[in-house]
C-alpha cells in the first residue's frame, strides 16, 4: 500500500503541475482528493493491514494529502495571476487616445416652466399639492358641479377606463380632495401641477395629453379683487414687468362668476392664457365648507401654452418629440 500511495503522489503531482487552467485544476482536486477520489479509494483498503501498519500508512496518507493540497493551492494562485495578467493585457487602455465627451442633459422646457410657476406661487404663500392621474367620475366631475347629465361634460371628451373611472381631464380633483382632507378648516392655498388627458386630435396647438397647473384659495373674505391681484403678480413675474392683463366674462361649472384671462403680446395681440373665477358655492358645500362663511377663487392654466408664449414656440408637438435639436436650446434658460 505504501508503494500505491507513493505512485499516486507522483501521478497527482505531475498532473497538477501540467494543469493549464483553473477548471482543469478543480477537476484534478476532485479526482485525487475528493470523497470518491483515488486517495480515498486507496485508504479504504487499510482494513486489510495489520494493527502495526495502519498508523504508519495513515500518517503517510495524511502527509501525501497535505503535499497535494499545497501543490494545488500554489498552482491555483499561479493560474489566477496568469489569468489576471492576460486579462489586463487584453483590456489595456491606450491613454494616448482622445477621450469620449459626455454631454450633460438639461431640464425639459415644460419642467422649467413648472418649476418657475411653483416658485412664484410658493413665494405668495401657496403649497404644492399632487394627485393621481387615474380618477373616479365623482371627483373629476360631480364634486365640481358637473352632474352626469350636465352639458359641460361635452366640453371635455374623456378617456374612460370603466363607466366610473377615467384619466383625469383636469387637476381640479386634487382641489376637491384637498378640501375634503382639510375637513372645513381654512386657509386653503394650493396649486396643483400635473398631467391631464382629453380626447383631442393632436396638431400644432392641441394634444390629447398636456400639463396643467390649477390654483385654489379658500378662506374668509376671499374676493375677486384678490384673484385679480394674484394673477397680475404671477403674469408680471412669468412674462415680465408691465405685461398687460385683462379679464373677460366666461363660464365654468365650478366657478361663478367665471373669467378668461388674457395678456397682451407685442406681436400676437391679446392672447388667452388661463381661466379663473370664484369657487361655486355648491363645490364648497360638497367639500364640507359653509359657503355662507367661506369664499374662494380658483384658476387653471396649460403649462404648454405658457411655455409656447414665453419661448415663442409655434408647435406644441415639439415638447413631446424628444428632438435634441429643440431640447438643447433650453440648456441655459
TrEMBL record:
Task: Name a single GO biological process.
Answer: phenylalanyl-tRNA aminoacylation
Q: Where does Mg(2+) bind?
A: 256
Alphabetic keyword roster: Aminoacyl-tRNA synthetase, ATP-binding, Coiled coil, Cytoplasm, Ligase, Magnesium, Metal-binding, Nucleotide-binding, Protein biosynthesis
Task: State the compartments where it is located.
Answer: Cytoplasm
> What is the top-level taxon of the source organism?
Bacteria
- Quickly give the catalysed reaction: tRNA(Phe) + L-phenylalanine + ATP = L-phenylalanyl-tRNA(Phe) + AMP + diphosphate + H(+)
| Ranges where the Aminoacyl-transfer RNA synthetases class-II family profile domain occurs | 113-329
The similarity annotation says: Belongs to the class-II aminoacyl-tRNA synthetase family. Phe-tRNA synthetase alpha subunit type 1 subfamily.
Q: What is the protein name for this chain?
A: Phenylalanine--tRNA ligase alpha subunit
Corresponding gene? Answer: pheS
